[in-house]
Amino acid sequence: MDFGFSEQQRDVQNLARQILSENVSAEKLSQYDDYKAERFDRELWQKLAEAGLLGVAVSEEYGGMGFGFFELGLLVEEAGRTIAPLPLVSHLISAALPIQQFGSTAQKQQWLPGVASGELMLTAALCEAHNDDPAQPYLTTASADGDGLLLNGEKTNVPFAHIANRILLAARTNDGIAVVLLDPKAAGVSLTAQQVTSYEPQYVLHLDNVRIGAGDILAAGSDGSAAMQWIAERSTVALCAHQLGASDKAMRMSASYTAERKQFGVLISTFQAVGHRAANCFIDVECLRLNTYQAISRLDGGLDATNEVQIAKIWAGDVGHRVSYAAQHLHGGTGIDRDYPLWRYCTWLRHNEMALGSSAKTLAKLGKRIAAGEAFCS
Amino acid sequence: MKVEFTAAQDALRKELRAYFENLMTPDLKAECDEAMGEGGGPLWREALQKMGKDGWIGVGWPKELGGRGMSPIEQFIFVEEVMRAGYPFPFLTTESVGPQLAEHGNERQKREIVPKILAGECLIAIGYSEPGAGTDLASLKTTAVKDGDGWLINGQKMWTSLAHFCDYVWLACRTDPDAAKPHKGISMFMVPTSDPGWSCSPVHTLGEVRTNATFYDNIRVADDAMVGELHGGWKLVTSQLNRERLSLVNFGPTAEMFNNIVRWAQQLDLPTGGKLIDEPWVQINLAKVRAGVEALKLVCYKQAWAMTEGNLEMADASAAKVYGSEFFIEVYRLLGEVIGEASLISRRTDGANPIASRIERLYRTASIITFGGGTNEIQRDIISAAGLWMPRASR
Asked: ipTM for the complex?
């Protein structure tokens, strides 16, 4: 049991925090409000690439730093702290990491150097209508077509699909799950823009007899199911890390606000009712932090983490929700005023709460595992 | 960061689990059940001394103090396992006052009392609260007045739990009635309960746990009964409480109870067909408990780790105490709901299910630590001030 950061982890955390805090501001974020512009800061993206952070978990032979999943998680946490306008989770965790893990040498050579350099954009389509379990696609099918596959179906809420070079997605086949890298420019692919609460660019992805060549298949059959489970767990816990950064920041903004705002001639932080609401957030965020770090640490160490990831997601949903409303409330009207930076955090807390399974849904999943004898306390 | 037990820690957990399976004989279990989770009986004492002889009580203590020299994490693993086994472990003595004596005690205390604590031969109760001093502890009135080469102690304490079978009371006394601030006039003493001027009368509580009012009538103690510096007691009180808070919310017993109830619900046939555990609402209740226990485990071990690093944060200790104490109440409700009306059947009923009757009892004791060990309102004050740097009202 070691809850301390290694020197390497601290370096990544500090570097990410420095670059992101210096380059993300409320003023800059405001230009993406209401989809006035595509919510993607390409200049900042290049800065992260130059600092080596986009390749933090890409192996050195493909131009990365070769660090582990924990360091990557810390980068995402810092992105959450600033709600940076960057597709870090969809690009690095849901797409690049699986290519590194499951891809052929050719696939790795094709994609990973561009991931580390920031020149290529990847994303993943993990969600279908009324089905947010990435490991169990129902509405997307693949059938054999020579040495490739023919895809049909639909995915929703696909981030940055319009600028992606490849979209990782899973389709149901006769003998399991196929995980493929789809070129959004291929014949039969069409995208419909969706406007969502966080202003992230998202699309419905329609697939009409889209041919996938053998070189773009990442995994198939029972390997495909296992690969999607692997991807789902890492993507889920990445959302938890983002939620951790965002909720920690929203909480600290609120604490600072109460230490400046006066009513009845005194700082409102001196009212016990105010302090206690903030203290509840502190406890909540600490629980989210420790569960998130535990899940990331286990995945990083190659240990089974199904229960720990689910538990972290339950906390991410609940804590995000509670911190969001406590922060809005403690700020009074200021919290919802669009000239003050808090409200954007609330939309991301909501995003992370709902993406890849809400607390209720995840509790039900965990409950099934408990019933099956798979989730005893050790 | 590596949030998992090392191989050696895993092995220690296994070793301890097997050790306590042997130690907890049916007779000892029955005696502990009768004592309502407090201990104090003859078999209980015998078992504590055996743990001492076997070197467990001080597993995380430095070797020069008679411990095994492992870290606070191993110490916490030991306490988790002993509590999981259902043994009412005197953690106030071993985990909170003991380390204070080891750190701040004088030579005699270190020589005579500390080894006895590690041997399981000395028990200490906490004497803080008074009829008029609870949350505002610094307003306490029990006095220690200089009397030649010793001190004369007079006063009354409330909620002196375990005192009726303890050897000493770790007693907070006013030594300077004129101090500029009340907490600057307090000193700590180790007062023997064998003194003729000491007496105690029981207070019976909702959960059948006995606590006490204790009385101090012209008790004369020598100078070396004082712990730490004259008028320097407040620091010892607060750091003792920080340590106590971690022990109060040990997650071990809850983890064990969760596992037992899951196994029970997996087996239980419903009259309407199927097993109890197939019910969706049962699964949801259990999942809520499971997710909460995991957080408690991590909160506890992070603090044990922080102690190994020597940087236990006040806000974290308070957060653990608030979270744990309020979570326990929620757990007993959620698990009680799973068991249903059977969770109202007392262990005194013939054929009572021990799992259900445990919830019946715990439900009645659960409120104690939301106010005991420093009320949760004060803990939240500490969290917002020390954890979030929010200016607070002066008191």
From this structure: 0.96
- B150 and B280 assigned to the same domain: no
Longest Cα–Cα distance in chain A: 78
Interface contact A314-B291, CB threshold 8 A: yes
Domain of residue A95 covers 7-120
To the nearest whole Å, the CA of B267 is away from the closest chain A CA by 11
Task: Select from A6, A244, A282 the residue whose CB has the most chain B CBs within 10 Å, as the one to mutate to test that interface.
Answer: A282
Please report the sign of the dihedral spanned by the C-alpha atoms of residue A84, residue A90, residue A93, residue A96: negative
Distance between CA atoms of B139 and B130, rounded to whole angstroms? Answer: 9
pTM score: 0.96
Residue B140 structural domain = 126-231
The residue behind tokens 């597993």 is B59
Give the pLDDT confidence of B274-329 residue by residue, as tens digits. Answer: 999 999 999 999 999 999 999 999 999 999 999 889 888 889 999 999 999 999 99
Distance from C-alpha of B60 to C-alpha of B38, rounded to nearest angstrom = 23
Task: Identify whether B244 is a catalytic site residue.
Answer: yes
* Residue A357 pLDDT exceeds 80: yes
Q: How far apart are CA A248 and CA A246, in angstroms?
A: 6
Catalytic residue of the set B31, B81, B244, B360: B244
- Domain ends where: A200, A219, A238? A219
Kind plus residue range of the DSSP H or E element containing A140: strand A140-145
Q: Are residues A132 and A178 in the same domain?
A: yes
**Spatial contact of A107 and A215, defined as CB atoms under 8 Å apart:** yes
Cβ of residue B278 closer than 8 Å to a chain A Cβ = yes
CB neighbour list of residue A268: distance below 8 Å, 6 or more residues apart: A258, A261, A262, A274
Dihedral (CA of A207, A212, A217, A220) sign = positive
Q: Give the percent of chain B with pLDDT over 70.
A: 100
